[in-house]
Amino acid sequence: MDNFLVNNRAMTPKDWGVDAAVAVMAFLIGCGQLMLAASSIVIPDLAMRQYLGIVNVVPSASVFVALALTTLPLAVRRRFPWPVFLFTFVAFIGLQNAFSGFSLSIIGPVVAVYTIACELSRVEAAIAVALAVLGLVFSEAPSRTASLAFFTRATNIALVAAAALGGYAYRTHRAYVEAVEQRAEEAERAGAQEAARRVEEERVRIAREVHDITAHSLSAVSVQAAAAERLVDRDPAAAKEAIAAVRATAKGALDDIRSMIGVLRHGDAAADMAPTVGTDRLDDLVVYLGKAGIVASLDDAGYDRSRVPAHVDVALFGIAREAATNIVRHAHAKTAVLSLALEGGRARLVVEDDGRGFDVADSEHGHGIEGMRERARLLGGTLEADARPAGGFRVTAVLPTGAGTEGREA
Predict the structure, then answer these.
(1) pLDDT tens, 61-118?
(2) Which run of H or E residues covers position 44?
(3) Count of CA atoms in the C-beta half-sphere (13 A) of 113
(4) Which one, 95, 257, 349, 396, has the greatest CB density within 10 A?
C-alpha cells in the first residue's frame, strides 16, 4: 500500500521546483483554454455558439477553482503519482459539467498519466490509461450536441494515450542513458583495476630482477673476496686477480641496477638501457661456479638462440643465474651441470648439482625458487625444483618459445 501511495524516489529541491512549475504552467494553460472557449475568437458566429451551448461570458472564480483542483496537485506528482492522478481525474470528471457553457481542460490528468508512465512500471501505466479511457467513455461530455461531445471525448482519450506513450518513451530513454553511464563507469573501473594489476606485475618483475642481480653479484663478490682474503699473504698475485674480479662483478651489478633505474625513471624512452643479458652469458655462470670451487659444465648444443624470443631467452638466463646462486649459497656441492635445449617448440633448462640439497618448502618464503617459478608461470611455462634420487638438487624449467617462431623478437 505504501508503494501505491508514495513513489520512493529521491527528490531534490530542483525536482520540487520543476514539479511546482509544471503545476503552475498546467493551470495557466487551462486558464488560457477557458478564456478562448468563452470568447468569440474560436467560434465567432453567435448562432453557432448558442447551438453548441457556448456562452460568451467571462468565467467565474469557481471555474478557476475547479481548474486549480485538476492541475495544482501536480506539484507533488512524482512523489505521489497515483494519488495525484486519481484526485485530478476524479475532479475533472466530476466538475467538467458543473459550469454551463464551460469545458475544463484535461491537461492536469494528462500530465498525471504521463508521470505514472514515466516513473512507474508499464503495468501501472496501462492501468492508469485504462481507468482514464473508461472514465472518459462513460462520463457525460460537456456539450449539447452528440458530434461535439464525441469529438471532445475522442480528443481527450487521444491526449491520455499520447501522454502515456510519451512518458514510457522518456522512461525507456532515461533507462538507456543510465545503462550506458553504468557501463562506462564499469569500464572505467575495469580499466583502473587492469592498470593497477599491470603496475603490481611490473613491481613484482622489477623486484625479481633486482633480487636476481643483487643476489648473484653479491654472492660472487663474497666468494671472490673470501678467496682474496685467503690468498693475500701466500699468493698476492692471485689475490689481486680475485680483487679485480670483485671490482668487475660489482661494476657489472651497478651497471645493471643503473639501467633498471633508468627504465623506471624514463619509461619506454629508456627501454634500450634495460638489462638484456641472455643465454649467451651462460659461460659466465660456469666461471662463477668454478670460482666458488664447484666443477661446472654447460651443455647447450641442442639450443639455438635465433629460434627463441628474446624475452624467453632472458628469462632462461635469469632462472639459470638464480639456480647457480642457490648452488653457491646453499648446496655445498662439488659439481654442477647446466643443460639447455629446444624440444618441440619449448626450451628446457636443467640446473643440477650433487650437494646436500635443501627443503623446497622452506624456500617458498624467500624470493629464490618462488621468483623462478613466477617468472616461468608468467611466460606460460613450468618450473620444478626437487631433490635428485642420487643426491643433490635439480631445477627444471620448461618455457614455450611460441608456435612458428622463426627468429628472435626485437
Answers:
(1) 888 899 999 999 999 999 999 999 999 999 999 888 777 666 788 999 999 999 999 9
(2) none
(3) 26
(4) 349
Closest CA to 228 of 215, 253, 250, 245: 245
Q: Please name the residue that has the C-alpha cell 475533472.
A: 92
Give the other-Cβ count within 10 Å of 198's Cβ.
10
How wide is the angle at C-alpha 297 spanned by C-alphas 357 and 217, nearest 5°? Answer: 70
How far apart are the C-alpha atoms of 364 and 370, rounded to whole Å?
A: 6
- Reference 398, options 353, 340, 359, 318; nearest CA is 340
- Residues 400/345, Cβ–Cβ less than 8 Å: yes
Question: CB atoms < 10 A from the CB of 231, how many?
Answer: 17
Nearest to 105 by CA among 160, 169, 53: 160
- Spatial strand order of the sheet with 295-302 comes to 295-302, 335-342, 346-353, 393-400, 382-387
Helices (H), 120-145: 122-138
Q: What are phi and psi of 200, to 5 degrees?
A: -65, -45
Tens of pLDDT along 263-279?
555 444 444 444 457 89
Domain boundaries of the chain, sorted by first residue: 2-144, 278-410
- 278-410 architecture in CATH? 2-Layer Sandwich (3.30)
Residue 275 is inside which H or E element, if any? Answer: none
Helix (H) or strand (E) holding 40: none
Find, among 269, 267, 288, 266, the residue nearest to 277 by Cα: 288
209 burial class (0-12, 13-18, 19+ CB within 10 angstroms)?
Answer: buried
| Residue 92 DSSP one-character state | H
Asked if the model's pLDDT at residue 233 lies above 60, the reply is: yes
